[in-house]
Design goal:
4 helices, two-stranded antiparallel ribbon, 36% helix, 9% strand, alpha+beta
Length: 138
């Protein structure tokens, strides 16, 4: 049984994630190894939650922009890492060590912190545009 870090989950509502990004994050969390490594392609992860390739790609880009998902510098195919603040660990001691290490690395600028978009006020909800009849040419 893995122990899930929950430091980042308390702010998920602030991250302005799409439904597809939340579903993809769930697939990543489910597939992770202790410490947050996930070895799966975007297509596999997207298919697991019913996303098209394009939707999975867009969702992954959003998760990466918020630093919830980290990629190796060499962009190794099929390898993702969950941020230590949301990864799972094999023991309570591993979790505590990882969180302490992550905080130190964030302070030193070696690891990005999970980032929420900065809004003065919440962005407006998209309003549906009513359909209008268009006169045929000619």
């Amino acid at each position: 049984m893995l122990i899930q870090a929950s430091a980042g989950f308390g702010m998920l509502y602030r991250l302005d994630l799409t439904k597809a990004a939340l579903e993809l994050l769930s697939a990543l969390i489910e597939r992770q190894e202790p410490g947050g490594e996930v070895n799966a392609s975007q297509a596999e992860l997207g298919a697991r939650v019913g996303l098209s390739r394009n939707s999975a790609n867009t969702a992954m880009a959003l998760l990466e922009s918020r630093n919830l998902v980290l990629r190796p510098k060499d962009r190794k195919y099929r390898t993702y890492y969950l941020h230590p603040y949301i990864a799972s660990y094999a023991s309570q001691e591993d979790l505590e060590d990882a969180i302490e290490d992550a905080a130190e690395r964030i302070e030193a600028g070696e690891l990005p912190d999970i980032t929420a978009p900065l809004y003065e006020t919440a962005p407006p909800k998209r309003q549906a545009q009513p359909l209008r009849a268009v006169r045929a040419a000619g």
